[in-house]
Design goal:
It contains 13 helices and four strands. The protein is mostly helical. The strands form two sheets. It has a two-stranded antiparallel sheet. Strands 3-4 form a two-stranded antiparallel ribbon. Residues 33-50 have low confidence and may be disordered.
Length: 348
């Protein structure tokens, strides 16, 4: 075989491949033209179904923010006839100790806490124990006293319990100012109304007792940065009050305070603690909130003496920590739970 013949023989497979490819291409074009002519679509490859939209992450918010109560715009306060009273009232809520604490420049009648330690952001935070209902719901009959209470009596109750101190005279400059501020905050709330976000979040009940031992671990992991390992908080450098308040000990709230009830402390913590938590983005789980409440409220604090509380013992809350009770559950269970059986018994 000469050299030319060998070259043609080697090219033969390539030539045949090109011819086959050309025939396939012609067939494909002809098929497409045919389908187009008769109005049919060629079969399509089946692709894996893809959702049109991806599921949004589940919201952790404890309550839908739509319709949540908001405090009036602070910049509008100057338009009020009693603007100076309102401003002083807010100052007293924020810096109570500076004016009325152990070294208070007006009076020395309280333990060094500020009202806003329990009523966050000067009483304006949603689910932060705010003052949105102070004007709309007082005066009202309260089970704890068995009597009708006006807002002045309610404020003095906080001074005696949460601030472990003495009362203010109703006609004092300080009482008038605090009432003016609270009334201004609730100016747009209709009489008898409790707007969305008022009060303290109600944490779902556990099917067990709240556990102080577990709570201690949570406290040491989440709370010591602000409240310190000994629970005594951080004092301001000038000694006028606390940057972060003590949670137990002689300078904390006494056993008559609302936060000494387990459900109140747990709800307050769930929506607001530790630092950075909000009702829209809580940090602790329900169980952690109950357990850290159990730990904090198991530690020593001022006793307080309120023998007239709960004249009708059947109206005591399920978690009121002191007897006597109108049911057969123990004082231990009333303090730490489990609460479901107590709640069910009270509803019968």
């Amino acid at each position: 075989m000469n050299q030319n013949s060998k070259s043609l023989f080697r090219l033969f497979p390539l030539i045949m491949g090109l011819l086959v490819s050309a025939l396939l291409l012609v067939g494909l074009i002809a098929g497409l033209l045919y389908f187009d002519y008769v109005g049919l679509e060629p079969p399509k490859m089946q692709l894996a179904a893809v959702p049109a939209t991806l599921d949004s992450p589940k919201s952790k918010a404890l309550m839908d923010p739509v319709g949540m109560w908001q405090a009036p715009d602070w910049t509008s306060v100057d338009a009020e006839a009693n603007a100076d009273e309102i401003k002083y009232g807010r100052e007293l809520i924020v810096n109570t100790s500076e004016y009325l604490g152990p070294q208070g420049k007006v009076r020395k009648i309280s333990n060094g806490l500020n009202c806003q330690n329990c009523h966050l952001q000067a009483g304006t935070a949603p689910l932060g124990n705010n003052y949105s209902t102070a004007k709309s719901t007082y005066p009202k009959v309260r089970g704890r006293s068995g009597n009708s209470e006006d807002i002045q009596l309610r404020i003095n109750g906080c001074f005696q319990r949460s601030l472990n101190g003495e009362v203010l005279a109703n006609d004092s400059k300080e009482m008038i100012a605090m009432v003016a501020y609270m009334n201004w905050l609730g100016r747009d709330v209709a009489k008898g109304e409790e707007p969305k976000g008022s009060g303290i979040y109600e944490v779902p009940l556990l099917d067990r007792a709240a556990d102080p031992v577990k709570g201690k671990t949570i406290y040491e992991r989440q709370c010591v940065t602000c409240h310190m390992i000994d629970g005594q908080g951080v004092m301001k450098t000038d000694g006028s009050g606390y940057t972060y308040p003590p949670l137990w000990g002689e300078h904390s709230y006494n056993q008559g305070a609302g936060l000494f009830r387990m459900s109140r402390f747990a709800g307050y913590v769930k929506a607001n603690m530790p630092f950075g938590a909000t009702y829209e983005n809580p940090i602790l789980s329900d169980e952690e909130s109950w357990d850290v409440a159990a730990y904090v409220n198991s530690l020593d604090r001022p006793k307080g003496d309120f023998p007239s509380d709960w004249p009708d013992i059947s109206k005591k809350p399920m978690d009121h920590p002191f007897g006597p009770y109108s049911d057969e559950f123990s004082e231990q269970q009333h303090k730490f739970g489990p609460f479901q059986a107590i709640k069910e018994a009270a509803s019968k």
